[in-house]
Amino acid sequence: MNTRFQDTDDKALWQRISAEEDALAFAELHRRYAAKLYALAYRKLGERTAAEDIVQDLFVYFWTHRQAIVIEKEVPVYLFTSLRNRIISSLRKKMAPKAVSLDDLPAQSLLAHSANPVQDWIQHQELQALYERELSTLPEKSRQAFELSRSGLTNRETAELLQITEKTVEFHISKVLRILREKVKYLVLLGGFLSP
Questions:
Q1: Which PANTHER family match (predicted)?
Q2: Topology, domain 117-189
Q3: Positive or negative: CA dihedral 89, 91, 94, 95
Q4: What is the 3-state secondary structure (H, E, C) of 10-56?
Q5: Which of 106, 161, 165, 182 is deepest in the core (most CB within 10 A)?
Q6: Which pLDDT score is estimated for 149?
Q7: Looking at domain 10-95, does it have CATH number 1.10.3810.10?
Q8: Could you state, in order of their start, the residue ranges of all structural domains in the chain?
């Protein structure tokens, strides 16, 4: 094992990878996160080979696109969010043969859904903007704990990554959820959402 980058933080490793194409820095990030990413993929997919493939594909993409990738948040948040998206795509592909055409659905089922998809889309975009804005104002540890938990990690895995206790992770997640609930409730009371 190469100990050259053992004490280097993730952000500095990413800078070396993206700017200098440093393979040793990449190997260190791989060493830090591959097993955790695999554990999550295996837990979600239930297949060893599929989990190995998806994690390997993620790291291959990470290396081959290193100059184009922009990591706005923390490196582990990027990796786990990318993995979550790949898992979702994989599960969608498995479900594709089970998809039903809208033409095959009874008209009553279709009428039960929104009659104004444009308004729904606008409300969704406004809610997403509020969500992003509120997340950006949170303390860093709270935001990181929340984002990692939403990328599919358990509280224990999040605690290990952030080097804090599980109780602290739970506290941060509860705090973020409380803040987001209050903001969304306030917006609904103002009539910004859910109005016909």
A1: RNA POLYMERASE ECF-TYPE SIGMA FACTO, RNA POLYMERASE SIGMA-70 FACTOR ECF SUBFAMILY
A2: Arc Repressor Mutant, subunit A (1.10.10)
A3: negative
A4: HHHHHHHHHHHCCHHHHHHHHHHHHHHHHHHHHHHHCCHHHHHHHHH
A5: 161
A6: 84
A7: no
A8: 10-95, 117-189
